[in-house]
Write a structure and sequence with these properties.
Keywords: Kelch repeat, Repeat. This is Putative muskelin. It comes from Hyalomma excavatum. InterPro entries: CTLH_complex_component, FA58C, Galactose-bd-like_sf, Kelch-typ_b-propeller, Kelch_1, LisH, Muskelin_N. This protein folds into three domains: 138 residues, Galactose-binding domain-like (Jelly Rolls, Sandwich), CATH 2.60.120; 63 residues, no CATH class; 38 residues, no CATH class. 24% of the residues lie in helices and 32% in strands. The protein contains five helices and 15 strands. Helix 1 runs antiparallel to helix 2 and helix 3 packs antiparallel against helix 4. The longest helix is centred in the middle third of the chain and has 29 residues.
């Protein structure tokens, strides 16, 4: 690659310095003249390629100008790019390699320009520095040409989908139907189209709920739910005896608790009641709501 464009540089810290890897030379780096956004560095490949990884070389010691946060963009032109990576470097001397996004819906796409956008340095208010950059990927001509043809078709379909979305939002129903019929491009999943019809056009809330319940039962949301973080739901433990009943552990802290998931039995041992250490052992049956003093 070659240096296509940069936002700025300081003194002798030219962007061309990143072409060679000299971890022992503190002057072998590109350094911006400001940390005020946008700061960037655009690399130009000799020819389009499937860019799969980017490797950053570093100075032999930790440095305040290393990029703590950065983004990588790629595209066939320097004006229209896709985000390929959002990550950051560790503040050490070790080389780091990152995998770049290079496929959409299982299809690889080529890039000619790679844009590196520093966002935050390790030192507060310090300029950004990049010491060395290495790109790896596949430049096989047949693969790249095939990817180019697919990517061109993909962009055309996405442009049509944006037009369809605009027409529907503005309620240009005739233009929407005409464009969709002519291009045979589907705006979205059939479920979303039906939901839009029921909710926006007809205002049938009951039918919307039935549609979503049916989709949930068919497992439409399973993939989304699988990636969600678990969140605890707390409910009070209510005993079957009266509040003043004595057959339950008293107030305490610093106790030990565990649960037997097979029998749904909760065990509590010891603790401190503010006056003395406790050594009593209790069990709580979640199905019956009864505490039992075991020892």
């Amino acid at each position: 690659y070659s240096i296509h464009k940069c936002s700025s540089y300081t003194g002798s810290y030219l962007p061309e310095n990143i072409l060679v890897d000299k971890p022992g030379d503190q002057y072998s780096r590109w350094s911006s003249d400001s940390n005020y956004p946008p700061q960037f560095l655009i690399l130009k490949l000799e020819r389009p390629a499937i860019v799969q990884t980017i490797t950053f070389g570093k100075y032999e010691k930790t440095h305040v100008c290393n990029m703590k946060k950065f983004k990588i963009y790629g595209g066939l032109t320097d004006e229209h790019m896709l985000e390929l990576l959002d990550s950051g470097l560790k503040n050490d001397h070790l080389t780091e390699t990152f995998t770049l996004k290079h496929s959409i819906n299982g299809n690889q796409f080529p890039s000619r320009y790679i844009k590196i956008v520093p966002i935050q340095s390790w030192g507060p208010s310090f300029n950004f520095s990049i010491w060395h950059v290495e790109l790896r990927g596949n430049e096989d001509r047949d693969l790249v040409m095939s990817s180019l043809r697919w990517f061109s078709t993909y962009r055309e379909k996405e442009a049509i989908r944006l037009c369809l979305k605009h027409f529907r939002q503005k309620n240009y129903s005739e233009a929407f139907e005409s464009l969709q019929k002519r291009t045979k491009v589907q705006l979205e999943d059939a479920l979303l189209t039906k939901l839009h019809s029921l909710l926006v056009q007809k205002g049938d809330f009951a039918a919307c709920e039935e549609l979503l319940e049916k989709a949930a039962n068919e497992g439409v949301f399973n993939e989304y739910l699988k990636n969600e973080e678990y969140r605890p739901k707390w409910t009070p433990i209510l005993c079957t005896d009266k509040p003043e009943g004595k057959n339950r552990p008293g107030m305490r802290g610093g106790h030990q608790m565990c649960i037997d998931v097979q029998t749904e039995t909760l065990y509590l041992f010891g603790g401190w009641d503010g006056v003395q250490d406790l050594a009593d052992l209790w069990s709580y049956q979640t199905s019956t709501g009864v505490w039992t003093c075991l020892s």
